[in-house]
Design a protein that fits this description.
heterodimer, A: mainly alpha, 12 helices, B: mainly beta, Immunoglobulin-like, 2 helices
């Protein structure tokens, strides 16, 4: 009887030890990353980090590498775990895929080059190592991925409504009326570490101009809906309806005056002028053509 | 059974102070010369500028007659148990005429925070949290209040990037025993059960100070804080 009880006790002790082991290994699992069929490992990532990343992001991942004093914008501080390019809501952690994409894409208008010369495995390992610099990866989960509905047709009405939103949402306060990054607040902007920062200049660049967080229409949609955390660019997810957001995307494309795009073709076909929208919340993409007597919005130099 | 209840009632009748809550009140003052408030130039935002007949001034140091200091958060930092749940009532942070009202808003961990835009201009609400998550949301005119909460204790600077003069603070606290000195530097923390407490006073420019206080039942204690002003 006593012996049996003893055996039961041993068994339960062993079981709880196994359970404890499992629980304790959870943080270690956080040092793994997953993108598609790839699995990244922090140990492998550390070696690559020390070769490719340490110079700017520093040995502690705080963005204070030996090159940092000469770099503007400053290298990302992985300890703060605030990331610009996310498919997740403002204030939440990005997904592994978001970080993986950022490493490959690099950050245009900054010193961060694109690292697509590294193998996919190296990049995913690097992401795993970057995630070891902050405990947030152990306590928080990435936010829910933004749902992006199918793109609406690119029409002059869509562009016109987007232009109206650009005014109403006051994007021009920072980005300027022509999207040149010269709005009235532009010169006062600072990032979350109080370093001066410039709003994106849509008109600069040529046919290959890119945004920090990508180059497709979906990327633009994502950028203003989730915001660019750590910078003055807020999230508009709570205030823009999905179809309206596509209209804004279509308008923003026309601000990239040197870039070939369907949006610029549509605008050119309409005589290069964006019809003005009078009503407050009319004119989704499917709405009938703007009134024939609508005043054209100031001619823009092209 | 009945006799036990009777006895308890008798004891309470004799010593009512056992049940009665105490309080701490006091005054916050400063020594030295504080920096003068600066004029805010709102000319880039005519919607807001027109609301002021006299130029608006910065609010990082607000003083009163007799060297009193406003916008100081006084709270129980030790001695009281952490609140188990947040109050159901939300606190409100208003953007009005391109200023934050109140300038310093205290709330409990996980308490609902409502952010209201009463202006005819877009604001972005950007709490520069370090312990909590930093987020940044746009709030155009006429949009409904934002509802948010913070799950960790922290003093968080809040700014609007569009209007760089807009700066306020969220004081996210684990305790429900807090007050903010207002008007004459005075504060009161009522309903304190008997006990030994540490009081902390926090000011956005002048830092923190602490004081220990012991409260017997029903006692009303006076605790004053004096900050050293910075001249710049």
């Amino acid at each position: 009887m006593f012996r049996e009880l003893n055996r039961a006790m041993w068994l339960s002790l062993m079981l709880s030890l196994v359970f404890l082991n499992l629980v304790c290994s959870l943080p270690a699992m956080a040092q793994e990353t997953h993108v598609g069929k790839l699995t990244g490992h922090a140990d492998a990532g550390k070696k690559s980090y020390q070769r490719w990343c340490i110079g700017c992001h520093g040995p502690y991942g705080d963005g204070n590498g030996e090159n940092a004093p000469w770099i503007d914008p400053k290298p990302r501080d992985f300890v703060a775990a605030t990331f610009k390019c996310r498919s997740t809501p403002t204030g939440t952690l990005p997904t592994d895929q978001d970080l993986y994409n950022s490493v490959a894409r690099g950050f245009t208008n900054s010193n961060m080059p694109h690292w697509d010369a590294l193998t996919k495995q190296t990049r995913i390992d690097l992401v795993a190592y970057v995630k070891t610099f902050s405990d947030r990866w152990k306590t928080d989960k990435p936010g829910d991925i933004l749902k992006i509905p199918a793109e609406t047709p690119i029409t002059i009405q869509s562009i016109a409504h987007g232009a109206d939103l650009f005014q109403k949402l006051e994007c021009w306060k920072c980005h300027g009326q022509q999207g040149r990054g010269d709005g009235p607040s532009a010169s006062t902007l600072t990032d979350s570490k109080d370093n001066p920062i410039r709003p994106y200049n849509f008109a600069a660049g040529t046919d290959d101009s890119r945004f920090k967080c990508g180059s497709t229409n979906q990327d633009i949609y994502k950028i203003f809906m989730t915001g660019v955390d750590g910078t003055p660019m807020p999230s508009f997810n709570d205030v823009i309806q999905p179809n309206d957001a596509w209209d804004l995307v279509h308008y923003l494309r026309t601000l990239q005056i040197n870039r070939h795009s369907k949006e610029n073709e549509v605008l050119r076909a309409a005589g290069g002028k964006i019809p003005k929208i009078e009503t407050k919340d009319a004119a989704p993409a499917a709405a009938p053509a703007a009134q024939p007597d609508a005043k054209p919005q100031g001619g823009r130099k092209r | 059974m009945v006799s036990t209840k009777l006895f308890a009632a008798f004891v309470l009748l004799l010593c009512p102070s056992l049940l009665m809550a105490g309080s701490v009140s006091g005054k916050v003052t400063f020594t030295g010369t504080p920096a003068k408030p600066k004029t805010i130039d709102m000319s880039k935002e005519p919607n807001c500028a027109k609301a002021y007949t006299t130029p608006p001034m910065t609010e990082s140091v607000v003083t009163g007659p007799g060297n009193t200091l406003d916008n100081v958060v006084v709270y129980i930092s030790a001695g009281a148990p952490d609140e188990k749940s947040a109050p159901s009532q939300a606190v409100t942070f208003e953007q009005h005429n391109c200023r934050y009202t109140p300038h310093v808003l205290a709330m409990q961990v996980n308490q609902e925070l409502k952010v209201v835009n009463s202006d005819q201009t877009s604001h972005n609400i950007h709490p520069l949290a370090k312990v909590n998550r930093e987020w940044n949301k746009s709030q155009p005119p006429g949009t409904p209040p934002l509802s948010e909460k913070f799950d960790k204790e922290e003093f968080i600077p809040v700014k609007c990037n569009v209007h760089p003069w807009m700066r306020g603070y969220f004081a996210v606290l684990k305790t429900s025993h807090y007050a903010i000195s207002a008007g004459d530097g005075k504060f009161t923390l009522p309903n304190l059960p008997p006990g030994k407490y540490t009081l902390t006073a926090w000011h956005e420019d002048y830092g923190t100070q602490t004081a220990d206080v012991t409260i017997a039942g029903g006692e009303a204690k006076d605790v004053d804080f004096t900050f050293k002003a910075k001249a710049y």
